[in-house]
Structures
1.
Amino acid sequence: MDKIYCEGCGVEIQTEDKTKAGYVPASALKNDPIICQRCFRLKHYNEVQDVEYTDDDYLRMIHQISDTNSLVVKVVDIFDFNGSFINGLQRLTGNNSIILIGNKVDLLPKSTNQNKLIQWMKKTASEYGLKVQEVFLVSAAKGQGFDKVEAEIEVRRNGKDVYVVGCTNVGKSTFINQLINRSSGVKDAITTSYFPGTTLGFIQIPLDETTAMYDTPGVVNRRQLVHYVTDKDLKVITPKKEIKPKIYQLQNKQTLFFGGFARLDFEKGLKQSFVCYFSNLLLIHRTKLENADEFYEKHVGDLLQPPSPATLEQMPALVKQTVKIPNEKTDIVIPGLGWITVAEGGITVSIHVPKGVQISLRPALI
């Protein structure tokens, strides 16, 4: 019998083992299209079943691209650039040209300097050892920025296959769905969800008689906050509308809590503004630094939420990182959450984030 592949996630269909990827009941083989039980439950009940693939399995699949002559489209989450970046991508994809896509641009405040963001993305990608041909900002959900991206892909691929790669939860499948919808009018061709790890194999989308676009499995990056968060909490910390900044005037020795996921301590410096860019649903609390430890222990999961109790059980403990902010307007980026703009700089702050999450500094985008 010819092999059959799930039209939702790309994995090979099988009818023997319910616990393994690609399972369908034998009676479902007559369906058109055929989707595995995992995709069926994801589509109809928004449930995600674990599968036996490891992080290394995903990386081995992506490494197959290095043996091809193709164009690579790398999708990152603008709100989690560091966490959604695939380390060693140049090695995994060989000598193929790479276009970098920053997704979710529609959620940025309209005052964001997009040219500055593009230059920062190019510079940071280079620091990670990745040489990119071009950088584009898009909204996969709304189709914003796709005219330029479509034209660039067509020119750069020059008759070659296209592989779309990215970490879990960056909107990679939504990006491809948008491309397919614009060219063919087919909506939601690929299974999408809030949850990491939806695509389990290469999904082939024909571009013409000889070439195709491939949706690839989302690479799991354990630095992403998303891997420690329940679906309920993820919906709170993931922006869905344009972010409305919240401004706090802080004296030194004051603290801001971002739900119970992160904390900023103003250690040293003159009073100034801290502009916070996070999901509009995430609650921010201010308190005195001397009370901050006790406040967190007493209120995390309650007044300081999310995280919910279920997330707290699996989330690493908060770890302190102290940084001196330069004498210029600077963003402190908390991967997976958002960022804080320090208006003047020349101060010392401590950021508390779950162990393994790495904060970064950049020139202010706004």
Note: The two ends are 58 Å apart (CA to CA).
2.
Amino acid sequence: MKKMLGVIQLDHENDLLKELTYFRCVAATPFASRYRLIDFVLSNMVTAQVHEIALFARKKYRSLMDHLGTGQPWDLNRKNGGFFILPPDWNDPTDRSLGDLQHFHNNRDFFMRSQADYVLISGSTHLCTIDYQAVFEQHLQTNADVTVIYYPNYKTNGQNQNKLKLQFNKKGAVQALINDQQNPHLFMNMYIISKKVLLELVDYCISNHKSDLLLDGVFAHLDRLAIHSYAYDGYHAVIDSVESYYKYSMELLQDINYQKLFLQANPIFSKIKDEPPTQYKKGAKVSHSLIANGCVVEGTVKNSILFSGVHVQKGAIVENSIIMQRCTIQQSSQLSHVILDKNIQVTPYQRRKGTIETPFLIAKSQVI
């Protein structure tokens, strides 16, 4: 049986979430009251029987390492294969590699030790419930060197428009990777590649002083590589700005979106936190909200998302907001269209208000 190994590559994920990524990388950003963004790609890989996964991290990965641990929630704490966090600890004085090629070059032994002949490479910002096994089967059937995954019906909606799209020729073959706002074929930063071809491209790029495996390696060789595409048309959200983070978070309060992401055949796993059930005290009013375990609600919560350990005191009002772990909103304070990062204390009688287009965002561990 032919196998894939997985690589979660974080090098190209810029810190576009402002205060949310002051102290963490994008992949570690909390989402949907109990998850982190990396949980989605990691869970999709494991569901597709990819049990040998490497994480290429370069900066601000302490929070991510704490969340992932040994990989036990994803059944990756195993003797054969398992989960490997590979930070940039390189000491080869002869190394001439640049950009993301440094990860592949300096961790070449990871690939050489693996018995898998194919590599699934993905980032963490595209949230979906993709069946990687179906992509792999198509990759094998078409005898492709590379299979790139795209979302065929993307609309910009005024969000971050610096996104790569696939361009096809008249025969439907991949022709280029471009940045065209009118093109709906959004490249999802996911692809399957032969391990042999991958290592050859890494060597080529390094010897020619290139710095980007995808652009300088894969798409610079469209003339000689068999590059095929796979169209994914299920639930999709790309988190690459504060606005998109808020938009897709709040959309999960609609039953249909929540079901598409979390109630499918592919379960989403995450770090287990042993928290008691949420307490709803006398006088609490809660409606149309997503609330994790360990919260205490004495005030009013409307159309909001609360992570574990949040305390909404008596008389406080939280609406259209995202409140992360261990925040306290003290009595008679009012929050509307607000994102609070972890460990924030909102003192009594405070008023904070943003908008749907521009939510009010506060970095972690502050007193306001």
Note: The mean pLDDT is 93.
3.
Amino acid sequence: MPNRTADLALLGVAVVWGSSYLATKELASGDTVFAVLALRFVIAVAALAVLAGSRLRRITPEELASGMLCGVVLWAVYSCETYGVTRTSASNAGLLMALTIVVTPLLCGARSVPARFYAAGATAVAGCVLLTQSQGFGPPGVGDVVIGAAAVLRAGHVALLGRMTAGRELDVTRMALVQLMTVAILSVSLASATGEPVDTIALGMRRGDWLVLLYLALACTVFAFVVQVRAVQRSTPARVSLLLGTEPLWAAVIGAAVASDPVTVAGVCGAALVVCGAVWGQRVLAPVDGPAARDESRVLPG
């Protein structure tokens, strides 16, 4: 995959991730969160298993254990993210998830983080505050709080994944598959206990709903993962961070253009601060982290 093609592929990943918030909002409701997650990840697991093929036979106990542990945290991320987007706008959800970018280096124990990174992080946080007040000053909504928790949990997932894989020869694809399977199993188990069971939701879905679900499972999960794993090997850390860092911008644009998310002065200023802070923070860290920095927060697609 040539560098230009890799860049375009990574930009495509950022676009589909940005659109995933609106797609999730269209499909899920407060009492169908786990059922939707179950259906999404069962499909994703099946597709990734077909692509992995014979490599699955070589899965090691270490990959299985590490993948299951990281998968539990990943399930918490997706649960908060999916529920949160049902209670806030797709634009806000995508932009607030950008907090992951500034929280991750702190949880990972990054050494010698430049002072400029904290300035970038403060810029992004200020933008998030403005976003939560875009409809008038007051306490942030439930959806915004839950999405913020999802962003912190995703940063924790990155830190855990980094520690579990440090100095070990673990297959990225096999670990990803175990994590996705863990998300699917936990979601299936909890769907009936907390809301609508999976089979009831599946039988009641219309053709359009199935198309959205397939988009989330195949484009936003499997396609994004496969493209990223290949593309990051042919690009630089700075370019990877910059291109994937445009995800919140796409979330805001798609939310406003397709779903007519409200556009206010505070919201626009907040979005600008979030995107600038996120991109600035990633560009500050890229030279420090060196070639190994491949935006670990995207080992699994969002």
Note: The first helix runs from residue 3 to 27.
